[in-house]
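User: Can you predict the 3D structure for this chain?
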Amino acid sequence: MTFLIVGCGITGAVIARQLAERGEQVMIWDRRDHIGGNMFDETDGHGFLVQKYGPHTFHTNKKELYDYICRFERWQEFRLTCGAVWDGEFTPTPFNFTTIDTFYPPERAAALKEKLKIAFAGRETAAVVEVMEHPDPDIRAYAEYLFEKDYAPYTAKQWGLDPGEIDASVLKRVPLRFSYQDGYFDDRYQVMPEHSYTQFFQNLLDHDNIQVCLGVDALTHLSIQDSRIYLDGMPLSVPVVYTGALDELFGCVYGRLPYRSLRFEWRYEERDSLQVTPIVAYPQEPGYTRITEYKKLPLQSGHGTSYAIEYPLPYQHGEKQEPYYPVLTADSQAQYAKYRALAEQVTDLIFCGRLADFKYYNMDQALERALDVAKMIEVRMRDHAF
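Assistant: Here is the predicted structure, written as structure tokens:
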């Protein structure tokens, strides 16, 4: 059987590989001029490997996911550290006891750390929204201080929303630590590719049953009519795996789903180091949210340093932007549910991935989703459901 996959990011590429290894023929379309989706990386004019669409590190607690990526690239351990700067001071993120030492006088800092150890005994982290609801006024004031200095202004810039409007799952992505531990993630496996993410995708897609066509905008060829997929006006007789924005596939009949996009300002400086950690958030700076110093992601030798300043903005279709992040609110999720209901009625359509699922996936979550979808397709083929 032949499959058409729309999108050559991790979701589409992994499903393609799984199908190809089962003997199926796979055609991949991607409207961009490269493979790898937002994980694409390349060497810049100064010799540094940079990620064109923002920083990615692979992290997971699941050995089976780590083992899978190891089939297609060698990986090196990489423990990501991040930080934030406000009022001229640097602090690690997630915020930890170093944060307290930085912004509190010694006696108050010691008392607050002791209170946190007792109040959250046996726990290493908690979401800021939980700590803000604690009955102890000192603990609550600490969380409110962090919210005022970082979470609120960063959220307003990143999402274009008041923090109260955004789904709580977004605020829970960066917890507070009750120790001096300073790593950004706690997962068992934290790695980056030994060569590059692009090399990983090249190996992943290197199969006789996979054909990749770049620079093809699927939405100029595909349409939905009477719960059927049409290709250039003719009924399509092969299953389609779609990883793009679901509203655009259906002509935005229920309005456009909200996504956030990014603009990157790329810079190079004749200095060995720009900032303390590879990724630093700047909640008080106008316009931009964070800076990624790629000389440190992964650690690279070379003269000077290359970095990217990140400016979030609303995604507007047709403006040569990428829809990076689904904006998760009660209204947007209700709107998405309507599109999902439409998609579920379409014969031979499989939809998945961060855009099509309208979910904020990490790489390991996107990989796991792709493997699950590939298994589902196998079951449907066995049951002659295509």
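The chain has a mean pLDDT of 95. The chain is about 30% helix and 25% strand.
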